[in-house]
Structure formats: structure tokens, C-alpha cells
Amino acid sequence: MKLLENKVALVTGASRGIGEAIAVKFAENGAAIAFTYLSSDEKAKALEERLTAMGVKAKGYKSDAGDFKAAEQLATDVMKEFGTIDICVNNAGISKDNLLLRLTPEQWDDVMQANLKSVYNLTKQVMRPMMKSRAGSIINLSSVVGVKGNGGQSAYAASKAGIIGFTKSVAQEIGSRNIRCNAIAPGFIETDMTHYLKDGGAEKWFEKIPLGRFGKTEDVANAALFLASDMSLYVTGQVISVCGGMSM
Ligand code: NAP
Description:
Blueprint: E1 8-11, H1 17-28, E2 32-37, H2 41-53, E3 58-62, H3 68-82, E4 87-90, H4 105-133, E5 136-141, H5 144-148, H6 154-174, E6 179-186, H7 203-206, H8 217-228, E7 239-242
Parallel strand pairs: 1-2, 1-4, 2-3, 4-5, 5-6, 6-7
Helix pairs in contact: 1-8, 3-4, 4-6
This protein binds NADP nicotinamide-adenine-dinucleotide phosphate.
């Protein structure tokens, strides 16, 4: 028996990076996968085909995570197609880094909408089907930067710290319905989002990471698998750091 057999997972922002790795890991473990993306049509189509070839039901939805109405429509469409939602991974996110002196109101709003409002938008939608089935796991992607802060990333850090407060509050609200809500705080993981860190040499960053390397998307996907599966049935309201020890 695979860890996620007979489960339906909804993963946002899975056309690339960490979301893609989570979708693949969940499919390997038997879950049917509904996933979203914003603009990478070809990558989304390729992922849908890859997951389907792995023997699970899979469908990609073009849906802006920051848009409340789009989240409502997404949940309706996924329920119609898949019948239920057992696992929701709020992964979609962006970074717009700037020193506060230069950070524009538009940059602040964009980051908050894509990273924090998005988590509110979809969590609100998936709660109902989860309450009906009296089970569910919600996993929100925070960041080591939301735990520690980082100069030049005040908007991003605030959005990711907000996710932690949201996660712990929601866990308290819905624990009695057997729905769990946890966050993952990755460190620097090798994706498009962190590509720029390698400019000027990755080695200088390694000094700040006890394990001495950037993380791989699969490192985060493994933690997501634990939180999605019955291996973590007594775990809620927690922030699991997957950061090579950076948050110590
Ligand atoms: P990434 O490689 O830049 O991929 C971002 C994904 O999110 C893409 O699939 C993108 O879709 C999607 N997306 C972006 N905005 C969206 C929106 N408004 N609606 C729907 N989908 C949207 O990012 P990543 O590095 O994998 O990061 C994934 C998550 O982990 C983010 O929340 C990020 O903040 C968090 N995180 C990452 C790191 C890291 O080191 N990489 C560290 C800590 C936390 P398109 O392809 O269509 O644009």
C-alpha cells in the first residue's frame, strides 16, 4: 500500500520547482493530482502527461492563486473532476526583493497577494470538503526567511511569517474536525526563484548553512509527503524547517 493511495491532492504552483517535485512525489505515492500554475502552459501540460504516465489521475488548472474568485472556481472544478480534496498544498509564490527604502507599494501588494492572500483564498475553499469527510491535511509553504527575516526581503519575509501565524490559527480552528494544518519552511532550495543566489558564487552562502549545500526540491517534497500522509496524523500547527540547519 502506497502512502497516499486513494487520496486526492491539490498542489498550487506545480509547473516548476518545489511544487512540481511535490506533485511528482505525491503521484509516486499513489495520490491523484490536481495542480495549478499561472502562465507556464507547456510545462503544465508536460507535467500532466508525466503524472498520468505514472498511473494516477492528474489535471492542471491555470488559476491565479492570488485571486479569491479564481480559488472558488478552482475548488468547484476540482471537486467536480476528482470528487474530493484530501490534501491541499499552498505552494504558489513569488519573490520581489528590494531594500525597504526602494520597495514600492506595488511590489509589497504583489508579494502579499501571491504569497499570503493566496493561502487564505484556497484554504477557505478546501475546508468545506475536508470538514465533510472529517479528514484532511493542509500544507503551507513558508520560508526560513519568514522565521529569521532577511535584509532586502521585507515583503517576502512578512508574507512568509504571515503564513506561519495563519497556519497555527487555522490548525486551532479545525483540529476538532480532524483536519491538520502545517507549514514547511525551506531554506535555499535550487529552483528558478533562487537562481540569482549563485551569481557571484554559491560558496559564500554555504557558510551560513550547517549542511553546507543548497537544498533540492526533493528534500522539501519528502517533508510534504510526511505531512500529507497518515505518518503525521498527530502533527498539526507545526512549522517544519527544511533548511540544512540555517534556522538554528
Ligand atoms: P518557482 O520555481 O519560482 O515556481 C513558482 C511556481 O508558482 C510556478 O509553478 C509558478 O507558475 C507558480 N505561481 C507563481 N505565482 C502564481 C500565482 N499567482 N498563481 C498560481 N501559480 C503561481 O518557486 P519555488 O522556488 O519552487 O518556490 C515554491 C514555494 O516555496 C514558494 O511559495 C516559495 O516562496 C517557497 N520557498 C522557496 C524557497 C526556495 O529556496 N526556492 C525557499 C523557501 C520557500 P508559472 O510557472 O506558471 O509561473
